[in-house]
């Protein structure tokens, strides 16, 4: 287990970005959803990540979202702003804007599409970490970016004083454990099915899309493990499998499924922005049924 307090909390939600029915940024909805998630077990929020539809929100919208959520949850809840783009200069600009808007940290994904080699990737992250005073969470999700942050690169980056954490969607347990063993980086499970597995080998917690709809249940997985009740923690992780699969591995992006469920539950979500499309009625009904089965278990 980690021996130092995690930099951004343990139970983080990769929060959706609510939009109005007309497609505009819904800041009131974002504030309501953020407050709801914190009240129900999240001790940190990650904005403008994959789930937050960062590719289709403007720079001004990203900054406004940080300001609004900061106001809603107060100073005691870490707010991490997604700032990663495929352009180093643009990413630096977004990091500085997030700092000015009140973020506590930045989430920086590997540049996508251009697939830089490891030395260029390392230089990219260092330039962003040097640009502001905010701590950095690296986002390793090669399935979307096309580029892995290799373990040896991660180990070198851990020497930077402001690179403090990783959102891990690498699906490489061996590589993750190598970095955990050799650095002080706080690892966060970015794949909901791995929350307990990574926490048990020393991760700091999780950054979860599924937490948009079941924040208390996911928080309970790590709380039970911390309390020494590993069998019950494991059963809860296992019971979550069907909902996790329905939301994250059934052919639709997690943004689409999370918003379908939030809308069905009467919580702020709204539509997705193109090129994403909303879940159809049959899919939305199936998601709600899976959610209800999980909550009744």
UniProtKB/TrEMBL annotation:
Kindly report the protein's main subcellular placement as a broad class.
cytoplasm
Q: Is the Membrane keyword given for this protein? A: no
UniProt binding sites for pyruvate: 51, 207
- The organism's superkingdom is given as Bacteria
A Gene Ontology molecular function term of the record: 4-hydroxy-tetrahydrodipicolinate synthase activity
Indicate the annotated site residue(s) for Part of a proton relay during catalysis. Answer: 50, 113
Annotated active site residues, numbered on this chain, are 139 (proton donor/acceptor), 167 (schiff-base intermediate with substrate)
Q: What is its EC number?
A: 4.3.3.7
Q: Which SMART domains match?
A: DHDPS (SM01130)
GO BP terms, alphabetized:
diaminopimelate biosynthetic process; lysine biosynthetic process via diaminopimelate
Instruction: Tell me the pathway.
Output: Amino-acid biosynthesis; L-lysine biosynthesis via DAP pathway; (S)-tetrahydrodipicolinate from L-aspartate: step 3/4
Q: Which UniProt keywords apply?
A: Amino-acid biosynthesis, Cytoplasm, Diaminopimelate biosynthesis, Lyase, Lysine biosynthesis, Schiff base
Q: Which reaction does it catalyse?
A: L-aspartate 4-semialdehyde + pyruvate = (2S,4S)-4-hydroxy-2,3,4,5-tetrahydrodipicolinate + H2O + H(+)
Q: Where in the cell is it found?
A: Cytoplasm
Q: Please provide, in alphabetical order, the Gene Ontology terms of the cellular component aspect for this entry.
A: cytosol
- A Pfam short name: DHDPS
Q: Which SUPFAM superfamilies match?
A: Aldolase (SSF51569)
Query: According to its UniProt entry, what is the function of this protein?
Result: Catalyzes the condensation of (S)-aspartate-beta-semialdehyde [(S)-ASA] and pyruvate to 4-hydroxy-tetrahydrodipicolinate (HTPA).
Assembly and partners?
Homotetramer; dimer of dimers.
Q: Which family does it belong to?
A: Belongs to the DapA family.
Q: What name is this protein filed under? A: 4-hydroxy-tetrahydrodipicolinate synthase
Source species: Streptomyces griseorubiginosus
Q: What is the lineage of its organism?
A: Bacteria, Bacillati, Actinomycetota, Actinomycetes, Kitasatosporales
């Amino acid at each position: 287990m980690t021996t130092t307090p995690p930099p951004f909390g343990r139970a983080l939600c990769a929060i959706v970005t609510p939009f109005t029915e007309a497609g505009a940024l819904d800041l009131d909805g974002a504030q309501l959803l953020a407050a709801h998630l914190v009240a129900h077990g999240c001790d940190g929020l990650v904005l403008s990540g994959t789930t937050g539809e960062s590719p289709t929100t403007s720079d001004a919208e990203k900054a406004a979202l940080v300001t609004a959520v900061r106001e809603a949850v107060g100073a005691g809840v870490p707010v991490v702003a997604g700032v990663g783009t495929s352009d180093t200069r643009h990413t630096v600009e977004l990091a500085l804007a997030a700092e000015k808007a009140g973020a506590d940290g930045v989430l920086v994904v590997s540049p996508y599409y251009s697939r830089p080699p490891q030395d260029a990737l390392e230089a990219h992250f260092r330039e962003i970490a040097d640009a502001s005073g905010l701590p950095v969470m690296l986002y390793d999700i090669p399935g979307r970016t096309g580029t892995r942050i290799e373990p040896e690169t991660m180990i070198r980056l851990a020497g930077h004083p402001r690179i403090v954490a990783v959102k891990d969607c690498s699906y490489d347990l061996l590589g993750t454990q190598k970095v955990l063993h050799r650095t002080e980086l706080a690892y966060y499970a970015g794949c909901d099915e791995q929350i307990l597995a990574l926490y048990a080998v020393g991760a700091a917690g999780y950054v979860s899309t599924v937490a948009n709809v079941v924040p208390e249940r996911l928080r309970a997985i790590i709380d039970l493990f911390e309390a020494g009740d590993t069998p019950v923690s494991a059963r809860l992780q296992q019971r979550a499998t069907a909902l996790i699969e329905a939301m994250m591995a059934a052919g639709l992006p997690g943004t689409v499924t999370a918003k379908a469920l939030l809308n069905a539950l009467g919580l702020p979500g709204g539509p997705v922005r193109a090129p994403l499309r909303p879940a159809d009625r049959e899919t939305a009904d199936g998601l709600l049924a899976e959610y209800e089965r999980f909550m009744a278990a």
